[in-house]
Write a structure and sequence with these properties.
It holds the Pfam family Response_reg. This is Response regulator MprA. The chain has 16 helices and 13 strands. Helix 6 crosses helix 7 and helix 13 packs parallel to helix 14.
């Protein structure tokens, strides 16, 4: 039996098609939710942080935290372990893009319909109005396009180059679409062979290597063939030979790795800078201050010290970003228009107690200091602050966060 992967657009009746294929075969279903749960178990990352990788919009801190890349690496390992254990699977959804496309016994299917037909399905099945359905479809298409771009470096998520079978469900019909998938399982091109099983083992080794590198703060493209691991660096780095030596030293001793090669990819000469994540430094710092020039300069100085930061200029924006991105450390001014710093601190520590908040103010009193510390602030500093003092305070807050995790 072959493995089937099914990538689909929203409101393309993919669930019904997959159900029919399941009924007609002895395949077992592996959902996105199961892969996320497996990846969470393997990595220790929270499931919601892993699932966020499916969204087109990455965290504002991602260039330093590499959280999306880490999530993809662990999900890839989760899928690889499933493929080694079982050759009778259907993997629909976002996870369908995770397996190495060189694995020959995977039948790669895409289910899609034109937007008019998808809107009609949304109205018929969910009772959604046209405008609401279109909004959901556009957002989902955006997420899926970004996902395919990240994993396959292809702009069109429905491109026939990615699949063995592209089925327009609206015109083909649900029943016939399912029948065509089942029929293709008898195609010799997708039969399980010793060669295709070897490709699965190569994929598993590459996935393991990728997660080991992620644990060390690295994010590179990994492939494997017969024990030879190839590491591809797709972002510019000044000391390339030093990075290559470091990567090779991490990978060389791993079980199953016979040789390691390093190379630069097509993205190496672009403007992106390679950043290794330093777990001893905070990578998700939110700066909240209405003095724009001051806070922008502070952000630049922290980045020069390899601390990733984002900037907002008022309390309401800070609370919105906390909700969407959940920073690890916040540097917070007290006197701001609208929601002031004390109220921001109160809400953050009430709703997100794991976030450490450093108060940095030029107007605070001893009474303010006491209120802030009673509310759970990590530290209370005065402007102007020595950057080394602030850096050490940030590191101490980061150490507390890591210890508690």
């Amino acid at each position: 039996m072959s493995v089937i992967t099914v990538f689909n657009g929203l409101f393309c009746e993919a669930g019904v098609v997959v159900k029919r294929v399941l009924d007609a075969t002895d395949c077992r279903l592996v959902t996105d939710q199961e892969i996320v749960a497996d990846a969470s178990r393997l990595s220790g990352m929270a499931e919601d942080r892993i699932a966020r990788a499916f969204q087109a919009k990455a965290s504002v801190f991602n260039s330093f935290s590499h959280e999306k890349e880490q999530a993809i690496a662990w999900m890839r390992l989760a899928v690889a372990e499933r493929l080694v254990e079982d050759e009778n699977l259907i993997i629909p959804g976002f996870a369908s893009q995770l397996p190495d496309p060189s694995i020959g016994h995977i039948l790669k299917v895409c289910l899609i319909s034109d937007r008019k037909a998808r809107v009609a399905v949304a109205e018929r099945e969910e009772g959604f109005a046209d405008k609401h359905a279109m909004k959901l479809i556009r957002k989902d298409d955006e997420d899926r396009a970004a996902w395919v771009k990240a994993l396959r470096d292809v702009d069109d998520p429905w491109s026939g180059t990615l699949y063995d079978l592209v089925l327009p469900v609206a015109s083909t019909g649900v029943e016939r679409s399912a029948d065509l998938i089942v029929e293709q399982l008898s195609n010799a091109a997708v039969k399980v062979t010793d060669k295709t099983r070897a490709a699965v083992r190569d994929f598993l080794l590459a996935a393991r290597v990728e997660t080991v590198l992620a644990k060390e703060g690295h994010s590179v493209q990994v492939s494997s063939r017969k024990g030879t691991v190839t590491l591809t660096i797709n972002k510019h780095v000044l000391l390339l030979e030093k990075l290559e030596r470091e990567l090779k030293s991490i990978v060389s001793g791993l079980d199953g790795v016979l040789a390691v090669e390093a190379q630069v990819g097509k993205g190496f000469h672009q403007t992106d800078i390679y950043r290794k994540m330093d777990f001893d430094l905070p990578s998700k710092v939110l700066l909240v201050d209405d003095e724009r020039e001051f806070v922008q300069t502070l952000s630049e100085r922290l980045m020069m010290r390899d601390m990733g930061s984002a900037v907002v200029y008022d309390g309401e924006s800070a609370l919105n970003l906390v909700r969407d991105d959940e920073p690890e450390v916040m540097i917070l001014d007290l006197k701001m228009p609208g929601i002031d710093g004390i109220e921001v601190l109160r809400r953050v520590k009430s709703e997100h107690p794991d976030i450490e908040v450093i108060i940095l103010t030029g107007h605070g009193s001893e009474a303010d200091r006491k209120v802030c510390m009673d509310l759970g602030a990590f530290a209370y500093l005065h402007k102007p602050v020595d950057i080394d003092v602030l850096s050490e305070t940030l590191k101490a807050a980061n150490e507390k966060i890591r210890a508690e995790k």
